[in-house]
Write a structure and sequence with these properties.
Length: 272
């Protein structure tokens, strides 16, 4: 989810401000909307498999921490930006996506170039919360970008939900969730994630104010030295059009760190 500045609203066309799934185009960018002018997903038409929005590139920073990721589970499809990026550029990763709304699946494929299911991608029409409850130790990375026209649904930010996210991940799994930094409940959500992931949490702001990618780790990564993260970022940038090196510096700026390494948040105040 990416909020639209007021001066950009005038450039949007064909957006019905209802609970419908709508598509707009402006300046070569095709955007998905769920009942509002808020951009849920965006695609540059000339580069349909690139990650147009900064926060989606930030969410891909799970690649900085482990090199042996095999399976990604995403709850919510939207325009499928990250899903199709992984399918196009991460050949060793398989993806499962759970999407409740069949119209979103149809539009993602017809308007946003999301591929059909194959041996590396399975998009399932279904209830993401139910899927999580029925699958434990099931995925290396869990991606949550669950905004609707009213913001993040209450069922996707409770303590029970984040506990379930941790249960769905493998022993070294990573939760990556997109939150909105100016949300009055942001600190509450962050505390809940810290509680579910034993304090093994990093935050990555991608706008001022704006989206914040929050990473919850089942286990603290073995190597959080800045030199290692920078080396990993440089290696990833050879194969991805993602500013990984810049994101490493942003992680150091917004999380406990020294000149040598990152440290995890350890604020375990319980918030029900």
């Amino acid at each position: 989810m990416f909020r639209v500045a007021k001066h950009l609203m005038r450039g949007l066309s064909n957006v019905a401000l209802t609970d419908a799934v709508d598509v707009s185009e402006s300046n070569g960018i095709r955007s998905l909307h769920l009942g509002s002018v808020t951009i849920q997903s965006a695609m540059r038409i000339r580069e349909p498999f690139a990650l147009e929005l900064t926060y989606t590139r930030g969410m891909m920073c799970f690649l900085l921490f482990y090199s042996n990721i095999k399976h990604v589970l995403a709850i919510g499809l939207g325009g499928g930006s990250i899903t199709k990026y992984i399918h196009a550029y991460c050949a060793d990763i398989t993806s499962t996506v759970i999407e409740l709304n069949p119209k979103i699946i149809q539009i993602a494929r017809s308007q946003f170039y999301v591929p059909e299911n194959d041996e590396r991608l399975e998009i399932i029409e279904g209830d993401g919360l139910k899927y999580l409850a029925e699958h434990s130790d099931a995925s290396d990375v869990l991606l949550i970008d669950a905004f609707d026209s009213n913001g993040i649904p209450p069922d996707f930010c409770s303590q029970d939900f984040f506990d379930q996210c941790a249960n769905t991940l493998t022993n070294s799994g990573i939760l990556v969730i997109n939150l909105w930094g100016s949300d009055k409940n942001f600190d509450i959500y962050l505390q809940r994630i810290e509680q579910s992931f034993s304090g093994n949490v990093l935050i990555l702001p991608t706008g001022k104010p704006g989206n914040i990618a929050v990473f919850g780790f089942k286990l603290e990564p073995v190597d959080l030295r800045m030199t290692s993260l920078r080396d990993r970022a440089k290696a990833l940038e050879k194969h991805h059009k993602i500013e990984f090196l810049q994101f490493v510096e942003t992680l150091a700026e917004h999380n406990p760190s020294s000149s040598n390494r990152l440290f995890m948040h350890r604020n375990l105040t319980t918030e029900s």
